[in-house]
């Protein structure tokens, strides 16, 4: 009986450690998503400060509008994908 209780305790401890590691990895993933999501606007600001023709070309031409739409769609797709992964991990 004592051996069975000891094994049960070890199993519960291992499950708790796995759960904590999973939470840590999910937090790391969310932080990475925030950083990656902030990169396009940040890069746009830096490039605008470096080159005065960058922002007008991006905001007033058809090609610039297409690039902005593509950036927005890919950002939204990445966020949706990350949320789907987070939901599937929570269900496990």
Could you explain the architecture of this structure?
The chain is about 95% helix and about 0% strand. It has about 90 residues and is mainly alpha-helical. It has one domain (about 25-90). Helix 1 (about 1-50) packs antiparallel against helix 3 and helix 2 packs across helix 3.
List SSEs in N-to-C order.
HHH
Question: Low-confidence spans: pLDDT under 50, at least 5 residues?
Answer: none
Largest sheet: none
First-last Cα distance: 30 Å
The number of helices is: 3
The overall average pLDDT, rounded, is 87
Count the E strands: 0
* SSE-based structural type: mainly alpha
Radius of gyration: 23 Å
How many domains? 1
Principal-axis shape equals rod-shaped
Concise structural overview:
This protein has helices at 2-50, 54-60, 62-91. By secondary structure, the chain is an all-alpha fold.
Blueprint (SSEs and pairs):
Blueprint: H1 2-50, H2 54-60, H3 62-91
Helix pairs in contact: 1-3, 2-3
Could you name the key traits of this structure?
single chain, rod-shaped, mainly alpha, 3 helices, 93% helix, 92 residues
